[in-house]
Amino acid sequence: MGCIAQDRCDPRMLKSLCRRCRISTWSRVESGVLGSKEFRVFISQSGTILSPWHDVPLYVDRPDLLLNFVNEIPKGTRPKMEIARDEPSNPIKQDVAKNQELRYLKAGDMPFNYGALPQTWEDPDWVHPDTKLGGDSDPLDAIEISDSPLAIGEITPVRVIGILGLIDEDETDWKVIVKRTTEPNSADNPLAISSADLGKITTWFRTYKLAEGALEENKLIFDGEMRNADYAREIIDEAHARWKSLRCTTKSDDRTL
């Protein structure tokens, strides 16, 4: 049973969601063969399978604003991995296209670690004033910019650097830019991002769908400029509140959306 499987609407519980989850390490449990439709990566803690979306706490250390990052697509790889919202325990699996073939990134290797922030939800009914569109019904996407790749399903503490706003098929799709705390030199300047790295990120999200047959580039709000960490945290806090509301309207034994 996950940390939020019962009494999830008790205000005292919501104030300290998954506090006991903070003190243990997370393990990855692979099932099946990578490159097959059966492949799954589950998250385990103390031998119990948990949801990377619902059971991993968003905040590692609230005073220091450290967040947990769940990696889906390792840097330098192409399989389109994602949290399975509609499966029990929400394992990470390879996405399947409309023709039922496994999806790969046609634009090339992922240039950064790509994943999600747990316990967040981009509510379709949440119309942000800067995008004027609702969310895509997924956890908040996050881009981890450290030099080395993370494994599929690896969970690591990160600091927020900023955020980009993407409009994808008439939905708001925020991209939170983060950097892991264990990266060398991150303590010296934890919120730094080079113009080259930021340019690489914005170029990727503007153009990657062209390789998949799209006729025009994706739209980035603010002309593709990154908003700072304070702006990003406002989005994160709202998405966390929306996730809490989502869980309060979901059956206690339902580990899917």
Automatic annotation (TrEMBL):
Catalytic activity, EC: 3.6.1.1
GO biological process, one term: phosphate-containing compound metabolic process
GO CC annotations, alphabetized: cytoplasm
GO molecular function annotations of the record: inorganic diphosphate phosphatase activity; magnesium ion binding
Keyword tags: Hydrolase, Magnesium, Metal-binding
Cofactor annotation: Mg(2+)
Pfam families referenced in this protein's UniProt entry, alphabetically: Pyrophosphatase
InterPro entries, per database record: Pyrophosphatase, Pyrophosphatase_sf
Entry's family note: Belongs to the PPase family.
The protein, known as: inorganic diphosphatase
Organism phylogeny: Eukaryota, Sar, Rhizaria, Endomyxa, Phytomyxea
